[in-house]
Amino acid sequence: MFRQISPTVKKLLGINVLIFLLTSTGIIPADLLAMHYFESSDFHFYQIITYLFVHSSLMHLISNMFGLYMFGSLLEQIWGKQRFTFFYFFCGIGAGLLYMGIQYYIDFAELRRATNLALSDPNSQNLVDYWTKFGKIPLPGGFPNVLLVKQNYNEIVSSSILGGASGAIFGIVMAFGYLFPNSEMYLFPFPIPIKAKWFVTFYGLYEMYAGIENQTGDNVAHFAHIGGMVFAVILLKIWGTKRNNFY
């Protein structure tokens, strides 16, 4: 089976497994490599790459590596090592950047406005309103102040952590559906084949719906998945890659 795995895919599989072992055993703190929100004090620029190798559980790792194994080798055989490697990290980094953009303009927009108001005009009413709605850290008696507002904001945004190769994997799946739109696939446990173009379309629509719905307890970074697909299409359009038809 492993003879069918292309060289770069094999290296990526190995690195992901190694990093998972190192982080799950505590030898390397996962928090150090995972990507934090860019306004957090825990954010470092290298995290836009290292987050791709951090997985929260064994099933998280297996699902991503299975997607890499299933679709990655074919793309590497078509493009070659250098182009495939660039594509993988382009989609992965793009997914992380889009995810942070969604956080900035949507998830943390109201929090940021309230924080800026409390800091720019720290009167008693603004501070109380802010703390009533967004206070997360313990209030050591008395009254919230500017320093506590800053600490509270950092605590909230620092809780947003992104990890996993999903963005890059979704980019690879998107590329497969784009290049081989009529290639038929079987999705367990359904015995009916589905063409790759419909699989990618339905999967993308589901991720968009799930990201917008944002149900309580859903810790999946759906917009990172969408980001991987979007950046895959952008790069494929730039490259002008021709499609192949399979019927």
Automatic annotation (TrEMBL):
GO terms for cellular component: membrane. The keyword Ribonucleoprotein does not apply. Residues 44-103, 154-236 form the Peptidase S54 rhomboid domain. Pfam families: Rhomboid. GO terms for molecular function: serine-type endopeptidase activity. The keyword Hydrolase applies. Keywords: Hydrolase, Membrane, Protease, Transmembrane, Transmembrane helix. InterPro entries: Peptidase_S54_rhomboid_dom, Rhomboid-like_sf, Rhomboid_protease_S54. The chain crosses the membrane at residues 12-38, 44-72, 84-106, 156-179, 186-205, 220-239. It is a multi-pass membrane protein. It is found in: Membrane. One of its GO terms (biological process) is proteolysis. Belongs to the peptidase S54 family. This is Rhomboid family intramembrane serine protease.
